[in-house]
Amino acid sequence: MIRLEDLTKHSHTSEYLSSIIDEVIHKIGPNKFAAIVSDNAANVAGARRIITTNYPSIIDIRCIAHCFNLISCDIVKVDQVKCLVRRANILTRYFKNSTLASNWLKEAIDAKNIVGGGLKTYVETRWTTVHECTASVYRLKDALLHVCTIYFK
Fold it and tell me: d(Cα 138, Cα 85) in Å, to the nearest integer?
C-alpha cells in the first residue's frame, strides 16, 4: 500500500484522479509501472488516458474482472436466469438450514462419489457465485434426486 486517502470531499474528475495517481507514480518512479488498471467509469477511464498520455510506457487496461462482474449482473437480470438462481438459492438454503436434510445430502454425495463440495449460495455482490450456485446444483443432481426419491416420498 503506497497511499490511502479519503477523496470524498473532492470532485472525482478525470483531471483530479489523474493528479492523485501522478503523485504516486512520481513518488515511486514511472519506470516501476507497467500498466494502470481500473474499472471503466468515464472519469476513471479519463484518468487512465491522461496517465498513459503523460507516460507512454504505462499501458491503459480495463479491469477484466470488473467487466465479467458487469456481464454477470446483466445476465442475472434476465427473467429466466433470475428465476433459476432464485430456485437454486431456495434449494441451497433448505439443505443448509435443515440438519437432517443436509446429512442425507452429504451421505448421498459420499455414496455417489461426487467431488467438488456441497451446494453453494448465490451472493449478489460476488459475481462468481452465480456460476458456483447453479453449477453446484447441476453437479449434485444425482445426489439431490436420490435424497428426494428416498426421503421425500
Answer: 12
Task: Judge contact between 69 and 62, C-beta under 8 A.
Answer: no
Contact 43, 14 (CB under 8 A): yes
Residue 148 parent element (H or E) = helix 141-151
Secondary structure class of 12 (helix, strand, coil): coil
The C-alpha cell 431456495 sits at 90
The pLDDT assigned to 109 comes to 97
Cα Rg, the chain, nearest whole Å:
23
- pTM here is 0.62
Q: What gap in Å lies between CA 114 and CA 37, rounded to an integer?
A: 39
- Pairwise CA distance, residues 92 & 69, whole Å: 22
- For 34, the 3-state DSSP assignment is coil
Whose grid coordinates read 483530479?
16
